[in-house]
Amino acid sequence: MRSDARGGAVLAGLAALLVAGCESAKHDESNLPPPSIISGSVQLASGCAQQAQPARRPAEPSVAAEPGNPRQLVAGWLENQSPDRVGITVALSHDGGASWSRSPLPGLLTCDGGRYIHASDPWVSIGGDGIIYVAALGTQAPTSTGTPHDIVVTVSRDHGISWETPVVLESATAPPAQPDKEAILADPRRPGTAYAVWVTYQVTAGVEPSVDRVMFARTKDGGHTWSTPSPIYSGNDEAQENQLLMTAGGVLVDVFVEGSSLPGTPHPPPLPVKIRVIRSTDQGQTWSAPIDATQFTYTNAVDPGTGSQLRFFGQDITAASVGNALYVAWFEDHTEFSSILVARSEDAGLHWRAPQVVVREKAEAFLPTLAVAGDGTVGLLWYDFRHFTPKSSTLTTDVWFSSSRDRGLHWTEKHAAGPFDLRSAPAVRFGPFLGDYMGLCGLPDGFGAVFIQAKPQSRNGPTDAFFSHIHS
């Protein structure tokens, strides 16, 4: 699946699609109401507070609303510190996002009596019964045989007042195996039922892993116990960014991106990858063969001023559902243009319509995030560099939002936040880090968005987490 004739055919097909669909988005430089900062200081356990960094560094947020009670919101993000003395921060709102309280997720880090020196990949979900689930990837201290990693889930049954001891769903040591990138979904119709999905890589010391299998577990008792993890898909290649959706007809859907490998190097050769879905009609006990939603060319974002690597990859896909309709979105950054596209299924993932262009800019656009509001409006959040000035010392970055009231056929775009300097965000492997995803959830009257901005928008450190209530 590397640079070959097939990759050229994909590019040619995309170019034709862009010509046909580039007028589908209506541009509007007007601003949405300014977002509010919801990150900041937190009360740490005494063992963690002794060595904590005073400046906050939030990244990679997730957000969810309680079904039937959208005034109850939960957001989670990682604090991106080394050494890690915060882990995962959980923020709670009981008034639809007007005010927030926040605290570290307890019981994870060793300084708080837990097992992990680092916690990452937070994903939150709330059931119709009000139970909050927070999934995370915990990393233990390295040993002579390797580094242990756990997929864990922590539960609150009282709207975040207290949290139970984290439950380990899977534990593995790299090498020879490493779990990664989990997601969780509380069943909106079945009290006490939730589903978790992640990947487990085959790991060889000194080699970048590129073969994994998708794993799944389920709870029916509100997170007290979980089923034994079971593999639900393996293509003997790399599947990533698994996300779970539940349709109105009760079909559980796992959406993921799959390729021969998903490289993290700048300017990869044309690499055709697929967004695929697998379906379960029995709450995850059995799964269908994979169904292709779309195919696209995997690309990576780079700093337009320096050409250096940025941590935004073609694997950063997103998915959302409403009724029996499913939506998936992705980005592609090419030499002459950048685009974000959305594909739609009307029958719970069995068949997919041709992708629709939502964003087409000369500047790079990246990290799309989808959700659907209560009235069926589809929302898309992303970052781009359209206001960057060549040779500038700052990498001017903005947050944008586009909405569609006709199931993704036509879109109206508005400025959501920014500008900020992406170069001022904390650097990790592959460049400045805002996260491999951001949070967007549907509300009856619009959307709840949680995203990261760096200086000069941030106030509590190099980055802050921001919340915006976007009305549809």
Shape: globular
Rounded to an integer in angstroms, the radius of gyration calculated over CA atoms is: 21 Å
Task: Assign the CATH class.
Answer: Mainly Beta
What kind of sheet is the major sheet? Answer: 5 strands, mixed
* Helical segment count: 2
Strand order in the largest sheet: 1-28-27-26-25
Mean pLDDT: 93
User: What is the CATH fold-level name?
Assistant: Neuraminidase
The number of distinct β-strands equals 33
Which terms would index this structure?
472 residues, mainly beta, Neuraminidase, 5-stranded mixed β-sheet, 4-stranded antiparallel β-sheet, 2 helices, disordered N terminus
Task: Describe the protein in words.
The chain is mainly beta and 472 residues long. It has a single domain, classed as 6 Propeller (Neuraminidase), CATH 2.120.10. It contains two helices and 33 strands. Strands 1-28-27-26-25 form a five-stranded mixed beta sheet, with no helix packed on it. A four-stranded antiparallel beta sheet has the order 2-33-32-31, with no helix packed on it. A four-stranded antiparallel beta sheet has the order 3-4-5-6, with no helix packed on it. Strand 15 and strand 16 (252-259) form a beta hairpin. The longest helix has 17 residues, at 5-21.
Question: What is this structure, in a nutshell?
Answer:
With 472 residues, the chain is mostly beta strands.
